[in-house]
């Protein structure tokens, strides 16, 4: 335990009955509330972008393009779900398909300039909302919270078919 009374990276707490079960239930409840709040706020950030669309655009920007099947695997989404999302993003002019120069049978999704612009606007709105919500937190708490989230999401037992980059799906909790 650290001086602040929170576990450090070397402390492991065995799961079992009692306070640990209560803590796990609290974590689940709070992460579910977080996910619901994120989905609800997505429409307020930009009417064209659902939380899934925003997440997909962000991933395409981070990776400088991806195949739809890669997106489905990374986020543990059904291929038909990704296909519908990508089709909507294409119709909105936010993504485009390009032939993969290494394999002409494959199409890679890339952001358009309009996609980059909208993603930038929404990202800044989200950052402002997080800054406002976290304004009173000490820097040490923010750093610890960020590290805990990264550690949680880096769990190697992620979704089947997930890319081997250690990143768990951003919008799932389990």
From TrEMBL:
Superkingdom of source: Bacteria
Matching InterPro entries: ArsR-like_HTH, HTH_MarR-typ, MarR/SlyA-like, WH-like_DNA-bd_sf, WH_DNA-bd_sf
Domain HTH marR-type: start-end pairs: 24-154
CDD domains: HTH_ARSR
A UniProt-annotated Pfam family: MarR_2
Protein name according to UniProt: MarR family winged helix-turn-helix transcriptional regulator
Organism field: Streptomyces ardesiacus
